[in-house]
Amino acid sequence: MPPDNLALVRRYLDAIENGAEGDQLAEFFTKDIVQEEFPNRLFPIGAHRDLDAILDSARQGKEVLRAQRFDILNSVVNGDHLALEVLWSGLLAVPVDTLPADSEIRAHFALFIEFRGGKISRQHNYDCFDPWWV
What we know:
The chain is an alpha+beta fold. The chain has helices spanning 5-17, 22-26, 51-64, and strands spanning 29-37, 47-49, 65-78, 81-92, 104-116, 119-129.
């Protein structure tokens, strides 16, 4: 029976929501994972991450965010390829840009994920943040 990649991604996003890092987060990825985050308001030149950078980013994210939530709005599964439309929200633990701590930020994410051997081997993020002004 083929792996249930959508269920795996739901567990992955739940793990991020619950503050997973280190080995607890690494278990979702192949050793040669590549994550591309395309340019957005928080990363104007985008980001290219390997496994170590993903784990470091998760650790740093816990310092910036008090909480975060991923609501999957749509999904398309084609074998080892998955596309998601996600509504993301985060509660800031520290000021970011012009926003004070305790502000909520939201974004619409498009995630394109590839799997190999029941793990995430490639992830592309297109993150579109809602406007904010202070």
